[in-house]
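Re: your question from the hallway

Yes, I did run it. Sequences:
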Amino acid sequence: AQSVTQLDSQVPVFEEAPVELRCNYSSSVSVYLFWYVQYPNQGLQLLLKYLSGSTLVESINGFEAEFNKSQTSFHLRKPSVHISDTAEYFCAVTNYGGSQGNLIFGKGTKLSVKP
Amino acid sequence: DTGVSQNPRHKITKRGQNVTFRCDPISEHNRLYWYRQTLGQGPEFLTYFQNEAQLEKSRLLSDRFSAERPKGSFSTLEIQRTEQGDSAMYLCASSRGTSGSPDTQYFGPGTRLTVL
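Structure:
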């Protein structure tokens, strides 16, 4: 069985500071990894994903995540956050070669960016 | 592309009543998923359809829950004899359903169910 652990339920940071949202997964098979973001009063949106190839993946709004197989991690980082990044972020996995219908989500990390 | 829509957005019901939610996926998306999200938790997978075929169901989907996707377009999720523990946000997502690596799931805004 797979599981996802997001180690921080809330992360407060000041604007323009760097941030790291941690995600660790557990799986006996190879996985695909995702970060979704939920802005206030909006639905979940895909931020970035790792399927294969380069272990460093980037989003269009400056976030990046690195797949580390040995540490079973997929931490999300941004070197300088904006007020508009305030949202809840969810890490998710699905197993390679499986039905691909079953995203397993972590509990989420609420990022609040203060001026 | 108008996105995934869900109706109603909010539903308040009394324990023991039946409720039905509707999800309209992005047009031409073959796969449709249902998730449930309770307070302080991430979404939990319930079931998914490839066209009209229901291919996977979670153990969370008790026999009081039933989902359909007639004709492979919109989907309905029905909960019979609701219980207070059913109170949650019910999320629908759709994806193109391409073979090989997983495609992006696009989520709707959700239906918030409150069981009194």
